Amino acid sequence: MKAISRRALLLAVFALLAAGGIGLAVWLKQKQRPPDVTVGLLFSGTGPAAPYGKKAEEGALLAIEQFLQRQGDGPGALRLRVVREDTASLPRTAVAAMQKLVTSDGVAVVLGPESSSLALACAPLAKDREVVLFAPTIAADTFSTRDGYTFRNWPSAHALASRMAEVAYRQLGYRRVGVLNVQNDMGESYQRAFVARFKELGGVVPLNESYGLTATDFRARLGSFQDRKLDALYVVGQAEMGLLLKQKAEMGISLPVLSGIGVEDAKVVEVAGRWADGILYTAPIYDTAPGSKGAAFEAAYSERFGHPADIFAATSYDAANLVLATIAAGARDAATIRDKLFEVKDYPGVTGKIAIDPNGNAVKEVGLKKIVKGRPQLLNARLEPVNPGR
After folding, report:
1. N or C, which end of the chain is more exposed by having fewer CB within 10 Å?
2. With contact defined as beta carbons under 8 Å apart, do 291 and 178 qualify?
3. CA max distance for the chain
4. Is the dihedral of CA 105, 12, 45, 110 positive or negative?
5. What is the dihedral of CA 251, 255, 261, 266, to 10 degrees?
């Protein structure tokens, strides 16, 4: 049979991936041999988490496509099979999809999901079936275990919230901070870590409130913080924070707001407008200054998908490249991929240097950022803009 060209191969692969196909199925059929490794992509393509899931999946896809391009189509080229599944933003759907990937598709490693609740639902299955689950973008502390098969490429909520507590107490001089968080694994992990560290330093948290995932009226909760003689509010959520910030302003509550990466959701600034300006928050490092690795990634991503990247895409891209590096180094099964991931030290990713600790956590720098004129601005340790002209 006539050999398929590299260009034809890649076009076939990309078409299959875009359609939810199985990676190198066309090539494998022609070559009459099984894949070296099967990789699962488990992200939210539909449902409330889809804006995050789609970006994270695209980041992983870009890494895979670039890997295939580097491999070429020669006799010694690695053969990957890629299987995509949609969690529909639901834990039960995520578990069913994970079950299919493990039992029917024979994956060695799964990249995803993008949210803590989905990843936590899938983690027991990864452990029981000894399949690597690399959830790139989750923060929930309870995902960190020594089971050997769960990994992440995001600083833990403990690391992110503890840093915010230290900045609040030591650099901003805050002594009384109220806490308001969304009721999910992510929000509760941030809340616990911030409160514990802030109190450890000597701070006081007079009130700690939470709200449901579907909440749209935050005025009763916000009203609880009035007349508490607070220095600031620590608010942890996602897109709904836009409405929360708007209602806070309408109520005349002028307290500074500290937060997490959720404020970078486009809907936050869209809804809150100027009331989002000034929010200080912790986030994974992702520098896109000219000449940086982040800038090169942004260019490649935008060219491939036709829209800008974000921290979810970049973090997932790094995670996929870490997995692909283990495969390129000879890993062909979950146990070997796991072992090689634990060896990662100072990997130069687009989201900074990455190391993997014994619990499968990414050890990486926690960044400080601020919303300035509706845009995130990276700050240095002195809370000054890193690139003031951008």
Report:
1. N
2. no
3. 79
4. positive
5. 40
Q: Tell me how far CA of residue 40 lies from CA of 61, 232, 284, in angstroms.
A: 11, 43, 25
What one-character-per-residue DSSP string does 188-257 give? Answer: HHHHHHHHHHHHHHT-B---EEEE-TT----HHHHHTTTTS--SEEEEE-STTHHHHHHHHHHTT----E
Six-digit token pair at 204? 């006081």
Q: What are 168's two structure tokens?
A: 């609040």
Q: Which two tokens stand for residue 42?
A: 């488990």
Q: Is 10 helix (H, G, I), strand (E, B) or coil?
A: helix
Token output for 23: 């990676």
pTM: 0.84
C-alpha 17, offset from chain centre: 21
Cβ(96)–Cβ(118) below 8 Å: no
Strand partners, 248: none
At which residue do the structure tokens 């690391």 appear?
159
Q: How many helices (H) and strands (E) does the chain have?
A: 13, 15
Predicted confidence (pLDDT) per residue in 7-65, tens digit: 444 444 544 444 444 444 444 443 456 889 999 999 999 999 999 999 999 999 999 99
